[in-house]
Amino acid sequence: MRTEFEFIRNIKEQYGLNRVGDDCAVLPKDSKTDLVITADLLVEDVDFRLRWTKAEFLGHKALAVSLSDVAAMGATPKWAMLSIGVPKSVWKGKFIDNFYGGWFMLAKQYGVELIGGDVSESTDKLVIDSIVVGEVAKGQAVLRSGAKPGDSIFVTGTLGGAAGGLELLESGLRTASAGKEKSRLIERQLRPNARVEMGMYLSKRNRANAIIDISDGLAADLHHLCEASRVGAEIEIDRIPIDENLDGTDRAAKLKFALGGGEDFELLFTSDRKTFSGSKLPPITRVGVVTENVGTLEVIDGERRSILPAFGYRHF
């Protein structure tokens, strides 16, 4: 069965869609500014489950996933459109009101204005369509296609926490009955945060050559970036920053969560620099290097090298 990525690639080639392929589409606004636009679809029982989450958390996440795309372009989020398809069973209660409460709380944090959308009845499942528009200085949007051989590969924050939280939820655990560390993992899955400030920082002064947000997993998203840039990569396994709340998990499981779990919404980027530091910056870890071996991604574990497969979340 073809994946969603293969479907998108075929559509791009068949219809000549040159603006498709990054976290956002980039469109001209005026002589000084470009617009970036992203759309995300969240479907009940595919992207979330109502029995797991709070309405406020789901509203927050619906916006956060789109803010993360804007961050991956180095842009500042400005406007949003939000459409929802709601089954009658959900419409009757306060869930949707509380959902919008969570959405607006995060929107206020980043100065995002809701400028439209739609509300419709759905027959069975809750469906959420999130569109966010941002601005970036003319020609300064950071694309996936800018990585160069010799670049350092960096990730922000830590990885694997959202996947660890998802496994806990699937096992039946909820925040009310979880300890401190497990509660943090669950909240990272249900109420993620986007690296908006870091994205804006990276777009200035050419600090990053390529950026992608980690939504499908480090392995899959690194493959996406390398494919767009027509480069290869080497990753040092012991450098990957693992979420500290996974300390009770064995090494193999931690690496599986970090490499293939997804939904951490950290930024993966390449740069000419070897280090980043600053009191206002999040933790930033250099995990590898970009190579000239187009399409070949390797993992270095001590003295052993192996090919890094493009595993991670896929819809089909």
Task: Describe what this molecule looks like in 3D.
This protein has 316 residues and is of the alpha+beta class. 32% of the residues lie in helices and 26% in strands. The protein is built from nine helices and twelve strands. It has helices at 4-15, 55-71, 88-91, 95-110, 161-170, 180-190, 196-203, 218-229, 251-260; strands at 25-28, 33-43, 76-86, 113-121, 127-137, 152-156, 210-213, 232-236, 267-271, 284-291, 297-301, 304-307. The strands form two sheets. Strands 7-9-6-10-8-11-12 form a seven-stranded mixed sheet, sandwiched between helices. A hairpin with a 4-residue loop joins β1 and β2. The model has no long low-confidence stretch (mean pLDDT 94).
Short description:
By secondary structure, the protein is of the alpha+beta class.
